Amino acid sequence: YDWFKSPKIPLTPLPNEEEWYPVNMNTIRKYKNIYTLYNDEYIYHKYLIHRIFKGIEYRKIPMVEMNDTLKRIDIECEELIGTSEALKQPVGAYLTTMEKNMDIIWSKSVVGCGRGSAVGWIINYLLDITQINPLKQEGMNLQHWRFLSKSRPDFPDIDIDYSAHLKNTVFSEVKKYHESIGGSCVRVATFRTETSKRAILKD
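The chain above was modelled as a monomer; its predicted structure follows.
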């Protein structure tokens, strides 16, 4: 956040394309928004689709659940497309950046299964950002639009729970990684009802 600039999606370096997990083009052509996101102007969105298909394998999604899974992914891709167009940024890159952050955090601490609106996205589950499949929570309707919606385009926000006594270690490792790729991190403490954004602006 900046006093004079709009927020930007943090971008992480992508591996060489030949290293990406393969996708079945015949499959994604059957889903309009998955195919559109795969072919849009942002290379980060193409990479995201590859990571999603890697996640399908990682989560061992059975064939009997595949169509419902891909239909939900298609709906979420539509929200990414609309929000990215509105913000003029690859919003899907936020998810691949969070996937990287989670890899770092898991290497140092146990991480909570997920809380807040992020658990409503199956893409977050497939990327191992959350541990909850929103399609399999009996008696609960985890709405995808609470996390991100093109009708109210804004930057996504994922809350992460991990061991409180390891917070310094976790922050140090995340900071070290982002500084290694030319970025930076800041620690913000808020009290009472003030938000992190407001605290940065008032500092």
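The chain is about 45% helix and 0% strand.
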